[in-house]
Design goal:
0% strand, single chain, mainly alpha
């Protein structure tokens, strides 16, 4: 649609009391095209003769006045819609850190209880017990980070 056509439609809408700027009108039409709905623009001659306004023209004008938004608020709405929500990456990092800490704490508790049982019966722990325990807990807590065996041993001892 040409710039002159937009101007004539805006002038005609202004005459019947609908205030809309060119950017808002363009965005309304663009949105309608994206939704694959037919957009009907009323001709300038029809809008100039106020006595000849029929119900269809009135409904179109009412649609634009009801949905018109100022240029700045519309552009702010578009710019804030892109990307991820503010703080979402920080929230995920905090959640992952809490899961990691809970996993390490659970491993330490299980490993400490196993060591106490082994000392009480005067025997050794199973070979690779700590390594297998770490693997099980990482799956249980959905942890992808490495949990060093040294960390667990230093917390238990």
């Amino acid at each position: 649609m040409q710039k002159k056509t937009y101007s004539s439609v805006i002038d005609a809408l202004n005459e019947i009391g609908v205030n809309i700027n060119r950017v808002a009108l363009y965005k309304h039409i663009e949105q309608e095209i994206k939704n694959q709905k037919p957009v009907e623009i009323v001709g300038y001659e029809t809008m100039m003769n106020l006595s000849s306004i029929n119900e269809e023209d009135y409904n179109l004008a009412y649609h634009f006045s009801e949905n018109s938004i100022t240029e700045t608020s519309k552009s702010n709405e578009i710019s804030s819609a892109s990307g991820h929500p503010k703080g979402s990456t920080n929230t995920k990092k905090r959640k992952d850190k809490m899961n990691y800490d809970a996993c390490v704490k659970s491993i330490c508790n299980d490993y400490a209880s196993q060591l106490e049982d082994c000392k009480a019966t005067n025997c050794h722990c199973q070979r690779n017990f700590l390594d297998n325990l770490i693997k099980e807990k990482k799956v249980e807590y959905n942890i992808s980070d490495n949990i060093p065996m040294g960390t667990i041993r230093s917390r238990v001892m």
